[in-house]
Amino acid sequence: MYHKTRDEVAVSLKDSSRIKSEMTEIVRLNPEHPQKEAIEQAAAIIRIGGLVAFPTETVYGLGADAMNERAIQKIFEAKGRPADNPLIVHVNNRSMLDRVAERVTRKAEALIAKFWPGPLTLVLKRRSEVALSVSAGLPTVAVRMPQSKVALELINRAETPIAAPSANRSGRPSPTSAAHVAFDLGGRIEMILDGGTTNIGIESTVLDMTDDVPLLLRPGWITREQIAETTGPVERAKKEEELARSPGTRHRHYSPRARVILIEQDSPQSITKLCKDHIREGVVGFIGHTRVDISDRNFHPVVLENSAARYAHSIYSALRDMDERGVDFIVVEGIGESGEGAAVMDRLRRAASEVL
Ligand code: TXA
Ligand code: MG
C-alpha cells in the first residue's frame, strides 16, 4: 500500500473548490457521494498523524488515528480539551471494532445489530493497541459506527479506527456545520471536510456495556426506552457514578459566551416579562417555541417548532448565532422531556448558567 507524505498531499491540493483558511483546507463535498479524491487527501492526513474534521450524522468530529498516541495528543491541544476527558473511536464495520475493544457481550452485539451505523456509542473493554490517551487512562474505550457516508468513507480509506471528539474548542457548543468548525479550529487543524449541515444536531447516546446492566452515561438521539427494548433494563448514571465513569460529563459544556437562562416551565406572559427585564441590562436573545411580542433593537428572537427533532437540529447553531450578534443574555424555552426531548434538555441544562 502506497501512503502519501504530507508534502505530496499539499502539492495535490489544487482543486478550485478548496479554500485556504490560515493553513486549514476546507473541502466541499457531496455528502451523499463524497468525491474520492478529497476523501483520499483527508485519509492521507489521518494516516500520517494529522487532524481532519468531518461531518457525522450527529455533529462534526475532529478526527485522528486512534492507534497513534502523538496524533491523539494533537486533538487535545487543538481543542484545549482537559486530558481526563476520553474520546470516542469511530469504526466503519463490525470487524474493525475488534481492533479496539474486547469482550463484546451478547447485549452489545444486539445493540450493534440494531443501531449501527447510527448515533449510539458503546463503552467496552479497551484493547491495549488503542492509544492510551484516547481512553484518558480508563480501562475502557467508547466506540461507535457513524452513519454519514463521508465519515464511513474516510475511515475506510484511512484503514484505521478514527478517534473523534466533537470538533469545537472545549466548552463551546458542538459544531453542526463546517463554518462552526472553521470558527473554532481554523488554523489549528489540517483539513475540514464540508458535507453541509448535520442531520441530527446533538451528540450520540453514550452507553456503558461493561456490566450486565447497560448504564446510560449521556442521553442522545437513541433513547433509553429504545435501548431497553433490545437489552432489558437500562440504568441511568447517578451523579457520582457519572463522574467516575464518564469524565466528560462533569465539565461545563455546550456554552456560548452569553449567559444562558433556561426556562423549564413557564407561561408566555412570564417569558415576555423575563426578556423585558433583561433588555434593561443588555442585548437579549430568545430561543423558543412561544412567540414573544417585543419589538426592541436589543431583542433577537428565534422561534423553533416545539419538537425534539427541530430543537436538536438547530439549537447549537442558534446559540452560536447569538454570540455573533453580540447578545448578553440568551433566554431559552425548554421542551418536554419525553423520548428524544431528554437529550435536548440534558444539553440545555449543561449550557445554562441559570435554570428557572
Ligand atoms: O455524536 C458524537 O458522539 C460525536 C461525533 C463526532 O461522533 N462525538 C462526541 O464526542 O460527542 P465528545 O468527545 O464530544 O464526547 C464524548 C463523550 C464524553 O462525554 C466522554 O466523557 C465520553 O464520551 N466517553 C468517551 N470515552 C469514554 C469511556 N471510555 N468511558 C466513559 N465515557 C467515555
Ligand atoms: Mg464534545
- Largest sheet, described in full? 13 strands, mixed
Distance between the termini: 58 Å
Tell me, briefly, the overall form.
globular
Q: Indicate the percent of residues in helices.
A: 25-40%
Strand portion? 15-25%
Rg over CA atoms, rounded to whole Å, is: 20 Å
Return residue spans where pLDDT drops below 50 for at least 5 consecutive residues.
1-20
Describe the fold and architecture.
The chain has 356 residues and is an alpha/beta fold. It has helices spanning 6-12, 36-47, 69-79, 94-100, 106-115, 149-158, 178-185, 224-231, 239-245, 268-279, 308-324, 341-351; strands at residues 18-21, 24-28, 52-55, 60-65, 88-90, 101-102, 120-126, 140-144, 162-163, 191-194, 205-208, 215-218, 235-236, 259-263, 284-288, 299-303, 329-333, 354-355. It contains twelve helices and 18 strands. Strands 1, 2, 3, 4, 5, 6, 7, 8, 9, 10, 11, 12 and 13 form a 13-stranded mixed beta sheet that branches. Strands 16-15-17-14-18 form a five-stranded parallel beta sheet, with helices on both faces. The model is unreliable at 1-20 (pLDDT under 50). Bound molecules: threonylcarbamoyladenylate (TXA) and magnesium ion. Magnesium ion (MG) binds at residues 165-166, 174.
How would you sum up this structure in a few lines?
The chain is of the alpha/beta class.
